[in-house]
Amino acid sequence: MPDPESVFDGAVSIVVAEEHQHTTNVVFEGDNLEILPTLAEASVTLVYIDPPFNTGREQQRHVTSSVRVAEGGSTGFKGKSYERVRGELRRYDDTFDDYWTFLEPRLLEAWRLLADDGTLYLHLDYREAHYAKVLLDAIFGRDSFLNELIWAYDYGAKSKSKWPTKHDTILVYVKNPKAYYFNSDAVDREPYMAPGLVTPEKVERGKLPTDVWWHTIVSPTGKEKTGYPTQKPAGILRRIIQASSREGDVVLDFFAGSGTTGAVASALGRRFIMIDQNPEAIAVMRARLAAVDVDWRTSDNPKENE
Ligand SMILES: C[S@@+](CC[C@H](N)C(=O)[O-])C[C@H]1O[C@@H](n2cnc3c(N)ncnc32)[C@H](O)[C@@H]1O
């Protein structure tokens, strides 16, 4: 488990060490591509991200020219084949080209920040999941692919001209396939679909979830709702965090939105780092995490930014 102060590099580590020794959770406001390089290598156990899909050309303004291209050095990056696959996919689909230009440097940062036993959960929808899978195989290495999780829900209007699309895909990659942390015993179990076919003891205990997760969306009228439009259910994050981190570990979400990751991580005794560039997301997180000890590195907190 990393020391709280060692999570941060450079200037950030000085502030944390000198002024916020008690603080273990941090929320940053800003472009994640500028903030991620200030965090220390191999310092987080779990990265969960749920990036926006429609990043579009506008986002390219944020892309630096220093995108590191995969090459030798680290085991995950398979130089030439990654270049070739990326070139082919991006030529094939302009929208995906824009999307991947935005996401790629951030995923390289995620890889750098993960500890040797760490895991990435990349939450996508059906439009981009398959391209992203091929590219992530090349970035992390095919051996590092752990799961394709399907989160299935049933809510809202249904198309009559095709099968209604009612699922998201979460791709799971580990930094080191020989050393990753995964604890299925810590995961909340679920009811058997056919309880009559198993013993009463098994019914009582429930079954281990598979890679297909039926879970309702955040109810528009329920207690969990924060008002942030893309909020994901705490139940989904709970499983992820229970399985792929231990108490005290650091969980990172750099597309944090309403702060679901931090709220669940904190409830489960993990530390968190979250980043979002939208002031509305920061406001929602402030309200949601009011009872949690957080170092707010945000524009609405000039004192702490000094
Ligand atoms: C789909 S939402 C995440 C929702 C979140 N999982 C939740 O449960 O609330 C994506 C978030 O990424 C943020 N975002 C988009 N581009 C960003 C960037 N370059 N840096 C930081 N945050 C960014 C958006 O402001 C938005 O809040």
TrEMBL record:
Q: Which SUPFAM superfamilies match?
A: S-adenosyl-L-methionine-dependent methyltransferases (SSF53335)
| Domain of life, per lineage | Bacteria
Q: Name one Pfam family in it.
A: N6_N4_Mtase
Question: Which one GO biological process term can you cite for this protein?
Answer: methylation
> Per the record, what is one GO cellular component?
cytoplasm
What's one GO MF term for it?
A: N-methyltransferase activity
Keyword Transferase appears in the UniProt entry: yes
EC class of this enzyme? Answer: transferase
Per UniProt, residues of the DNA methylase N-4/N-6 domain are 44-283
Alphabetical keyword list: Methyltransferase, Transferase
| UniProt-listed Enzyme Commission number(s) | 2.1.1.-
By sequence similarity, the record places it as follows:
Belongs to the N(4)/N(6)-methyltransferase family.
**PANTHER family this protein is in?**
RNA METHYLASE-RELATED (PTHR13370), TRNA (GUANINE(10)-N2)-METHYLTRANSFERASE HOMOLOG (PTHR13370:SF3)
Q: What is this protein called?
A: Methyltransferase
